[in-house]
Write a structure and sequence with these properties.
28% of the residues lie in helices and 23% in strands. The protein has 378 residues and is of the alpha+beta class.
């Protein structure tokens, strides 16, 4: 079981930090680019729009062979550039037959998280306007944090087919296999205080659960604060990072890693990680899941809006009630908490602020950020 680790309450307000229940993260892996000290951080290479257009052209003419010359003309590029893009797409598992001399044909609909495919499905939500796609990136959270620091608006989405330095909670990394999962970060600018971000964290878990149920009919379990589980194993993790003043969040980035079509995990993770495919024996459309997830997040985020003030009265109480209902471990579970020297007790629901309560031999305690591990009694 992956636990949450103690968080950070340093006096570094006004700077980037993680929320209490999402501990500080390691310094991101160095990129190959060099930057001047004061320059805006360069984003990693976002997906070339021409690749999207190739996919669109091939999808729109799915039964036809399109010549390399025609594609090159449509894109205003060379035939060799088209060939490179096609090779890149093949590397991502997109089935395209042919070569420059014969032309190209798509043999199956690609399950790529390209804005072209996702945008129409999330129309009407705050996530429909700015969707940034990467075939390969260090971390979508890192990209989104950099962009947010330079004014990226509320509702911007950063989504990748693969992450090479995916960040997990507590300084862990997040394994992000190519074309197997949904690795997605959204920039939010809610008018709340840092303490209220726990509501967003809990709501995000509920949003994932609803989206997965909508697409697969599977009913997932939640583990405080926001792990999403199937058959006791984690298939989705959520990482919130934020930049805040003492009383005001400037912006936060909500990162979601959803294991969809992974066929296996390294042995070290085998007992605690799973994917939708491993639980159901079939593959799932990542595009459909990503869209359902963004729409579900939109609903949760909007529902929080009216009570944006401290602990948001009804919305917060409502989130707590729904979280407790959706979590088999929020009540009556024997746990060990890795906080304040470590202690054991039985979970007793969430308090009015959304923190987990644990009944110990010496009284009721509130888990702020520590790792909560279930004690399995044989
Ligand atoms: C956890 O440890 O439970 C949180 C995992 C969060 C992983 C996601 S994948 C998309 C986003 N980008 C990252 O680098 N991390 C988050």
């Amino acid at each position: 079981m992956v636990g949450v680790r103690p968080g950070c309450y340093g006096n570094h307000l006004g700077r980037v930090r993680s929320v209490p229940h999402n501990p500080p993260i390691k310094t991101p892996a160095k990129t190959r680019r060099t930057r001047s000290r004061h320059a805006a951080p360069e984003p990693e290479a976002r997906t070339d729009g021409r690749i999207e257009r190739i996919v669109r052209l091939l999808t729109d003419h799915a039964m036809m062979v399109i010549s390399g010359t025609k594609l090159a003309e449509e894109l205003g590029t060379s035939r060799s550039a088209v060939w490179r893009f096609v090779q890149q797409l093949r590397g991502l598992g997109v089935e395209i037959t042919g070569h420059p001399a014969t032309g190209y044909q798509l043999t199956s609909v690609p399950d790529l998280l390209l804005p072209e495919f996702v945008k129409p499905l999330v129309k009407g939500s705050i996530f429909a306007e700015r969707l940034h796609h990467y075939f390969r990136v260090g971390s979508t959270n890192a990209e989104a944090m950099n962009a947010a620091a330079h004014g990226e608006p509320d509702g911007s989405v950063f989504i990748a087919e693969e992450q090479t330095a995916g960040r997990g909670r507590g300084g862990h990394s997040w394994l992000s296999e190519k074309s197997a999962g949904v690795y997605c970060s959204v920039v939010l600018r809610p008018e709340i205080s840092p303490a209220d971000t726990l509501a967003i964290s809990l709501a995000a878990g509920l949003a994932v659960r609803a989206a997965v149920q909508e697409v697969t009919s599977l009913v997932a379990d939640l583990r405080w604060p926001n792990d999403v589980l199937l058959a006791g194993k984690k298939f989705c993790g959520i990482l919130i990072e934020m930049n805040a003043e003492p009383t005001r969040v400037r912006y936060l980035v909500l990162g979601i890693g959803l294991n969809v079509n992974q066929g296996s995990f390294p042995s070290a993770l085998e007992n605690e990680a799973t994917s939708l495919r491993l639980e159901t024996g079939r593959t799932w459309s990542r595009v459909e899941l990503a869209a359902a997830l963004l729409k579900s997040l939109h609903r949760e985020y909007r529902a929080l809006a009216p009570g944006r003030g401290a602990h948001a009265g009804k919305p917060m109480a409502e989130i707590i009630r729904r979280f407790e209902d959706a979590s088999s471990s929020a009540r009556g579970r024997q746990v060990r908490v890795e906080e304040e020297g470590g202690y054991e007790g039985v979970t007793e629901g969430l308090d009015a602020s959304g923190f987990l309560r644990v009944r110990t031999a010496t009284g009721l305690r509130t888990v702020i950020s520590g790792g909560v591990k279930e004690i399995v009694i044989h």
